[in-house]
Amino acid sequence: MKLIKVAGAVLNQTPLAWENNKQNIINAIEEARKQKVSILCLPELCITGYGCEDAFYSIGVHQTAMEVLHEILPHTSNMVVCLGLPLMYQNRIFNTACLVINEQIIGFVAKRFLAGNGIHYEPRWFTPWPEDEKIDITITDKKGNKKSYPLGDIHYNVGGVKIGFEICEDAWVANRPGRKLYKFGIDLIMNPSASHFAFSKLDIRKRFVLEGSRAFGTAYIYANLLGNEAGRAIYDGGTLIASSGTLVAVGERLTFDDYLVTSAVIDIAEARMAQAQASTVFNVPDMQDTCIEVDFTYPQILPENPQILDNPWEKSQYLQEEEFARVQALGLFDYMRKSYSKGFVISLSGGADSSAITCCCYLMIKMGIESIGLEKFKQKLAYIKEIQHCQTVDEIAHRLITTAYQPTENSSIVTQTAAREVAKAVNAKFYEFNINTIYKEYTYLISNAIGRELSWQTDDIPLQNIQARVRAPSIWMLANIKNALLLSTSNRSEAAVGYATMDGDTSGGLSPIAGIDKAFLRQWLRWLEKVGYDLKGTEEFFRIPALQYVNEQQPTAELRPLENKQTDEDDLMPYDLLDSIEEAAIRDKKMPLECYILLQLKYPQYTKAQLKTWVAKFFKLWCRNQWKRERYAPSFHLDDKNLDPKTWCRFPILSGGFERELRELEAYEG
After folding, report:
1. Which residue ranges of the chain lie beneath pLDDT 70?
2. What is the separation of C-alpha 457 from the centre of its chain, rounded to a whole number of angstroms?
3. Contact 587, 643 (CB under 8 A)
4. How far is 303 from 5, CA to CA, in rounded Å?
5. How many other CB atoms sit within 10 Å of the CB of residue 455?
6. How far apart are CA 460 and CA 559, in angstroms?
7. Residue 128 carries which DSSP code?
8. Of the candidates 297, 313, 442, 557, which lies 20 to 30 Å from 134 by C-alpha distance?
9. Active-site residue list
């Protein structure tokens, strides 16, 4: 046996927050030392933060990152530590993993495959490193001392243990670096990552970690970022350590910690024997000069049992509902504290969207305290003096969550009751501002100006929109008074077809559910009402029964007279069908006729004429309302169906509107 204790650490970093990031790194190193770890893998770009965007073009950012790296060195005595930072060479910027051993920089591995799809934009800032290339780079420290280090496609022999790297995206491609590292008899692959959360993504990560470990006959450490780092992407953490195709440690996900270290004892001799048994062909490896030799002595240790985390919620039959609750809670918490906001304000209509957001704010407090404890939760919000004396979740909720129901003559007792009961259930502050007089004043003002009376027969959309818009000033005023963050309540299904009033229900500094479809939101609300989440595996479930007042309704904007019995689906189409068209048209890039043919198979209960009408309506509304999507407040990225044009789904503001394709659909007789 050749036993070595290794670890991966997840870090909750913030772009360009140098002292915060450095302290998290040092704390993780010290925690790993307490656990008697010899080799520690930290996440990708952990010194600068992953989401620096165009700040990566700043010379000052690179200089400061190198200064911070040197400040961390004294904390690495008798350890092997991987640290991520950008590095410039020949006027190109590279995403690198620096290997530090016993207070000394040893070299920099440069990322070969850059993530450039969807929310990722790495090719804008970084250059991919060419395979099999290695150079020496000279670095000057703060004292003016110059030293040369290897940079490129390299690996290491550290005290007789061969260590290689796959940096995040490197492991997601077919020609992953591990395939070449295998030829060098690598013992351990480290994967420093910044892999954002998406529903069920953990299973994909486990597959490439396990398959890489099995196929390459190595140990494998995967270390990820944690939390809402830069605003849109939320990282779920979840360290993975495998050896020869078997998971030996799994770290907790979606916690509220600043750092979390997960360790395991691996047997290097066992991994080598797995390679020996699998190999039938031997080729003399080339590029031997890419191996950097370093002396290091590993302590004698004993075997340990695997640390396979057994969180019940990870195995829940309602995994997506559990993930949504936890990722929203963490995302809201980090966004609030990193923006120094003193809570949240929501225009609570009594409908599904605003009720879901209000509940998520409450879960932020409840899950945060369950994750790190009451005192640490308050400590991380030390700038909010109003909560420091609070002792319960409900006390804190009353100070951090503010809601307002703003009815007109077209609002119903049903939504009024729902809004009041949901606010009461989560102990939020609840106000009621009757805005009917303001709505009428605007109507009279415009009627007098244009010389005619406005009516529902001739001015339906303007009369609806003005009601939504006059709600904005008062709710913004509440947010300003409280120094809190106003949350926009529009969802993805509405964003797809522009079924939202700009400067009305889209008002806010953050739009947390703009990436989530309406059908899932309604499903999640029913889950939270009737099932709920398991409190730390105790089989005691937390629910919000008051959501029955929301779930019993048909979604409605309540902007037309009550006798019209307005519903969202009457205005648009059934939400599940709308989401199916959006998935086919936007995610899968199908043309109108192709969407129609797919829908015929999926929704045989509707007539062909009705399906044609809905498909045509979707494409027309999609094209007409791109300008609205461009103006949405930043939203959380939670899956591959996001419509955010700034990070995921670009579409021209002005376009031909699929006119040719819609004529083809209309003429189709199948």
Report:
1. 278-288, 536-538
2. 44
3. no
4. 9
5. 10
6. 9
7. P
8. 297
9. 44, 111, 168
Give me the phi and psi of 598, to 5 degrees please: -65, -40
Q: What is the pLDDT of residue 279?
A: 62
Q: Please, how many CA atoms are within 13 Å of residue 312, restricted to the half-sphere of its CB? A: 9
Q: What six digits make up the tokens of 119?
A: 């929310």
- Give the alpha-carbon dihedral of 455, 458, 460, 465, to 10 degrees: -80
Rounded CA gap, 138 and 390, in Å? 54
d(CA 462, CA 445): 13
What does pTM read for this prediction? Answer: 0.95
pLDDT tens digits, 440-455: 999 999 999 999 999 9
Residue 545 to residue 525: CA distance in whole angstroms = 10
- Distance between CA atoms of 403 and 428, rounded to whole angstroms? 7
Q: What is the CA radius of gyration of the chain?
A: 28
Detail the residues annotated as belonging to a binding site.
Answer: 195, 201, 465, 489, 494, 628
> Position of tokens 């969202």?
568
Helix (H, G, I), strand (E, B), or coil: what is residue 535?
coil
Single-letter residue type at 439: Y
- Tokens at residue 290, please? 């890419």
Q: Dihedral sign, CA of 355, 356, 358, 363?
A: positive
Residues 647, 232: Cα–Cα separation, whole Å: 9
426: nearest Cα among 342, 344, 326, 501: 344
Q: How large is the angle between the packed helices 592-602 and 608-624, nearest 10 degrees?
A: 130
Pairwise CA distance, residues 82 & 94, whole Å:
16
Domains observed in the chain: 3-309 (3.60.110.10), 313-563 (3.40.50.620), 573-670 (1.10.10.1140)
Measured distance CA(467)–CA(566) in Å, rounded: 15
Q: What angle do CA 335, 339, 343 make, to 5 degrees?
A: 70
Residue with token string 């395991």: 264
Nearest C-alpha neighbor of 651 from the set 618, 628, 667: 628
| Burial zone of 360 (CB within 10 Å; 0-12 exposed, 13-18 middle, 19+ buried) | buried
| Single-letter residue type at 5 | K
Which structure tokens are listed for 406?
């703003």
**Whole-number Cα distances in Å, 429 to 6, 277, 345, 395:** 48, 66, 9, 11
| Beta-bridge mates of residue 357 | none
Check if the beta carbon of residue 417 is closer than 8 Å to that of residue 549.
yes
HEC string for 549-591: HHHCCCCCCCCCCHHHCCCHHHHCCCHHHHHHHHHHHHHCCCC
Q: What is the model's pLDDT at position 284?
A: 60
**What pLDDT digit, counting tens, does each position of 158-211 carry?**
999 999 999 999 999 999 999 999 889 999 999 999 999 999 899 999 999 999
What single letter denotes the amino acid at residue 162?
K
**For 75, left (φ over 0), alpha (ψ -120 to 50), or beta?**
alpha
Give the pLDDT confidence score for residue 80 in this predicted structure. 98
**DSSP letter, residue 421:** H
